[in-house]
Structure formats: C-alpha cells, structure tokens
Amino acid sequence: MKKKEPKAESKDLDVIGIGNLNMDFHISIERFPKEDEKMLIDDLSISPGGSACNFAVACSRLGLKTGFIGHVGKDQLGKEIIRNLKDSGIDRPHIIFDEEKSSGISLAFTTKQEKHLVLSYRGANQLLNKSDLKEGYLKRARLAHGASITPLLAREIGEISSNLRIGSSLDVGAEFLSIST
After folding, report:
1. Is 178 exposed, middle or buried, given 0-12, 13-18 or 19+ CB atoms closer than 10 A?
2. What count of Cα atoms within 13 Å lies in the side-chain half-sphere of residue 14?
C-alpha cells in the first residue's frame, strides 16, 4: 500500500510585503533654487509609497492575495497610507501605528532638465524589527518580500522563511549602501 503524502499546509496569502510605508511627495520645479531663494513649484502629486508598499500594491493589482508588515505614525499620513492599502485589498493586521514617530515621507524633486533630488524621512519605518516578523502570519504566505530594510532584518526574513519553508525575496535599498565587500 502506498504511503499518503502529508497534506500541504493551506496558504491564504500569496505574498507578504515587509518594509517601508511612506507618503511620497513628487514636486516638479523649473530648476533647483539657489541658497536662500524662495521659489514656487510647478506641480505636486502626493501618493502612498515606499518600495515594499509599491510592491504589495502591484501584487494585489495583479490578483495576488497580499499582506503587509510595517509601521506608520499615528498621524493623518499614516491613516491615509492604511486607507490606500485597504482600498487595494491588502491584509493589514500587522501594520503598527506608532505614537513616538511620524509616518515616513519622501520628497522627490524633479526639474524641467530631468535632474532629481530625493529627501527621505524614515520616521516610524525605522522601528520595524525582528519582533514584527510573526511566524504565525508569515506561514500563511507563499512568499515574504522585504524591501528597503536593514541587512539584519533581511537576514532574519531569510532565516524565518527558510524555517517555514516559504519563499523569500529582497529588494535592496539605501540601507545596503554602507556594506563593504
């Protein structure tokens, strides 16, 4: 008699994004101002962002069941980011509202000559750590994807994912620029 294979554990999420939740301000200007010069902007658009957030929204739009692990500030920007994730159909029980830090923001300036300047404030994003990686939540997914996270957290995601026998992927960001080979 043939031995039955153990039944594979049911996964109710395809992917979980782990990382930054920001509000992005895209600012179009004629040119960069000189020191102490005031200037009007040509155009402004505001939208939720952050590499992990963008990845999660894209996955959800492609029809994948998507969750998220991250931090936002307990402020109006954080509420708007969460509303956007909800509207995108993303599972959100592991997004933490933090009282001590504001939500992360990114200010992206672009001139008519296509020159760019990006300034970022990590805010509540910097509070993301190993204790946020709940195995009970992660094992519900087929893939854990980290983006713009610290090298230490990337390693933790890889180890936990391996132990849970789920896939993992990483989109490195500025946090990895200081690593020497």
Report:
1. exposed
2. 14
DSSP string, the chain: -PPPPPPPPP-SEEEEEEE--EEEEEEEESSPPPTT-----SEEEEEEE-HHHHHHHHHHHTT--EEEEEEEESSHHHHHHHHHHHHTT-EEEEEEEESSSPPEEEEEEEETT--EEEEEE-GGGGG--GGG--HHHHTTEEEEEEES--HHHHHHHHHHHHHHT-EEEEE--GGGTT---
Domains of the chain, start order: 13-21+51-103+123-172 (3.40.1190.20)
* pLDDT, tens only, 46-77: 999 999 999 999 999 999 999 999 999 999 99
pLDDT per residue as tens digits for the range 69-83? 999 999 999 999 999
pTM of the model: 0.87
